[in-house]
Design goal:
SH3 type barrels, 2 domains, 5-stranded antiparallel sheet, 1 helix, rod-shaped
């Protein structure tokens, strides 16, 4: 009976290591990304997962319209395609 318990302990330890090193950090990143996408506002500068940058013109449900480039091209993306919100540039 004690040998059965001794063989289970390393398995439980491996599962705990996987949880704290792989699963938990991924859950934190997913939560932060979801929060970022839900807190977007008109006028925010952002980058899509394809690398396109622009300024938000309109948000309607899951569709976000951005304006990009010198010629002010308007492109509509789904909310899930937003990668990150660009921080404003400050003049120091």
């Amino acid at each position: 009976m004690p040998t059965d318990l001794a063989s289970i302990i390393p398995l439980v330890a491996m599962i705990a290591v996987f949880y704290f090193l792989l699963i938990r950090p991924q859950q934190k990143r997913d939560k932060a990304t979801k929060e970022l996408r839900n807190n977007l506002e008109v006028g925010d500068k952002l980058t899509t997962i394809g690398g396109i940058t622009g300024t938000i013109l309109n948000i309607k449900d899951d569709d976000i319209t951005i304006e990009t480039g010198i010629d002010r091209t308007k492109i509509t993306f789904k909310r899930w395609a937003i990668s990150m919100k660009d921080s404003p540039v400050t003049d120091d």
